[in-house]
Amino acid sequence: MAEEKVTVVEQAAEEKKAPAKKAPAKKTAAKPAAKKAPAKAKAAASLTIKLTKSLIGRSKNQIATAQSLGLKRVGDVTVQPDNTATNGKINKISHMVEVTKA
User: Fold this and answer.
1) How far apart are CA 100 and CA 57, in angstroms?
2) 85 exposed, middle or buried (CB, 10 Å; 0-12, 13-18, 19+)?
3) DSSP codes joined into one string, 49-92
4) What is residue 38's DSSP assignment?
5) Distance (Å, rounded) from C-alpha 47 to C-alpha 62?
6) For residue 45, what is the DSSP state?
7) 55, 66 contact by CB (below 8 A)
8) What is the pLDDT along the chain (102 residues), one digit of tens a residue?
9) 3-state DSSP call for residue 20?
10) Is the Cβ–Cβ distance between 77 and 97 less than 8 Å?
11) Which of 6, 30, 66, 102 is the most buried (most CB within 10 A)?
12) Closest by CA position to 47, among listed 4, 84, 95, 72
């Protein structure tokens, strides 16, 4: 019985000394690089917006929309991407701005 206790103690000591073997880590496949649009396409997909009428006397929503486009004063010009969000903003204040394709 004393021999059994010694062997159990010795086995426990050996397990502490020797590090446990870990399973090899799985290698993940490399992600493909994201495709970028050509620079010409980005330039063609933009709008030049010019504020032609004053914001004085306009509703808070219209003033906030003009400011979100980067327009603060009459004559201010900004270039924005041609997307649905920008088109929605332009529709909201279309009577105060001039829009041209950049």
Assistant:
1) 26
2) exposed
3) EEE-S--TT--HHHHHHHHHTT--STT-EEEEE-SHHHHHHHHH
4) -
5) 19
6) T
7) yes
8) 555 555 666 776 666 665 556 666 666 777 777 777 666 555 458 999 999 999 999 999 999 999 999 999 999 999 999 999 999 999 999 999 999 998
9) coil
10) no
11) 66
12) 84
Beta bridge partners of 81: 46
Residue with tokens 């327009």: 71
Phi first, then psi, for residue 61 (nearest 5°) are -65, -40
Residue 48 to residue 97: CA distance in whole angstroms: 10
pTM: 0.57
